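yo, Cytidine deaminase is done. seq:
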Amino acid sequence: MRANDVPNPAAAYSDPVARDLVAAAFEAIRDRYVLARHQIAAAVVDADGRLHLGLHVDAMVGRAAVCAEAGALSAARLVTSAGLLAVAAVRFPKPTEPPIARIVPPCGLCRELLLDHAPHISVVLPHPEDTLTPLGRLLPHKYVGTKWPAPLTHP
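structure:
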């Protein structure tokens, strides 16, 4: 299977924000996919309309791996303090799988992390009818500790 044989799943989304996020994440992982190293890319859009990309970085020790969403969050925070509005992640198929890229929701750890830094962020889910769902719906009982005095908010 060649990277160009895998269709971009962005066409399935009528919402322009969801479509742009999925397209950007797909293009990033299509161009950087490495079996067992880089399988997912994520895109985050900020309140100024800028896209920020992150790449899944796997590791021999599982806890050392970095999710694509965490990378996109970090990339965004390197260049802006604008609020983060939405996120999408795309998993590229392994050579032994059908040539279908899949939209994947954030893992539990990334749900917590994203909500810590962007409490009103939405997520693109795998089904177009669920486009731009508030991430808080996927994690209705988020952990609230005492490390920070209040949730981080951005203008």
